[in-house]
Model the fold of this input.
Amino acid sequence: MLGGVLTQSASWHWIFFINLPIGLAAGVLAARTLVADRGLALRTGADATGAALVTAGLMLGVHTIVKAGENGWASARTLGLGALAIVLLAAFVLRQAKAAAPLLPLRVFRSRQVSGANAIQVLMIAALFGFQVLVVLYMQHVLGYGAAMSGLALLPSAVVIGIVSLGFSARLTARLGERTMVVSGLAVLLAGLLLLSRVPVHGDYLTDLLPAMLSLSGFGLAIPALTGLGMSGATERDAGVASGLFNTTQQIGGALGLALLNTLATSRTDHLLAAGSSTPAALTGGYHLAFAIGAGLIALALVLASTTLPARRPA
Done:
C-alpha cells in the first residue's frame, strides 16, 4: 500500500529509497540480537571463478529472455546468447565439481528433499512474482486503477498470506506433513492463476480479481513447509550452504519468471494489436497468456512435489 501511495504522490524512485531505513533497522537489530559466531572467512579460499561464472550465466539468461520479444525467439541472437548462458552455467557446475573450496558443493543435491524443494520453489516463485507485476499492470492499464488503488487492491493477498503462514500453516504441517501442505498450497495457487487467465477486459474487482488474490493463501500454506524440507535434508556442515541455496533460488525464480512472463505477455499484446484488437483487449490477451504460463509452472511444481518430496508421517 505504501508503495502505491509513494508512487502516486511522489515518484516511483521512492519505492527504492524506503528500503534503506528498513535495511538499516534490520542490520541494527541483527547486530544486537544474533549470536556472534565465526565462519570460515576466506582462509580456505574463495571460489571467485565459480561466482563469476554463475553470475554471468544467470544475468545473460535473464537478458536473453527479456530481449527475446524484440529480437525474436528463434533469432540467431536469442539462440546464441541463450546457448552461451547455458555454457556458462554448465561451466559453473563443472567448476563446483573440481574446485577445492566450491561455492556450491554439489553434494547438497544428493538429498532428494533439498533438490526437490529448490526446484519447486523456482517454479512457484517464477509464477507468483510474474503474477504480482502483471496483475498490477492489468489493474492500471486495463481497469484504470491508480498506483495507490492498485496497492490497496493487493492488500487482501498480503493479509491472507500473513494469517495463513503465521496462524495455521505450522499447526497443519504438524498434523498433515510437509508434502501434503506443499501440494495443497500449490493446488490453491493453480486455481487462482487459472481464474486470472480468464479475467475479462471490463473486469470487476470483487468477482474477477478478489478470488485470485485470496488464492495466494496457498503461498502461506506451501512456503513454510517447503522451507523446512529444503533445510531438513542438509547435513550439519552444509546447513549454511543449503540456507543460502534456498534463498538464492527465490531470487532466481523471481528474475527468470518476471522476464519470461512479461516478455510473453508483451509479444502476445503486440501480435493482437497488429491484428486489429483494441489496446485494452490486446493487453488483456497478453496477460491471459502470461497467467496461463504461470499456471503451467505451478502445475509442473505440483507434479514435482507429488513425486519428489518424501511422504513423511505427520507428528
User: Anything to note?
Assistant: The first helix runs from residue 2 to 9. The chain is about 75% helix and 0% strand.
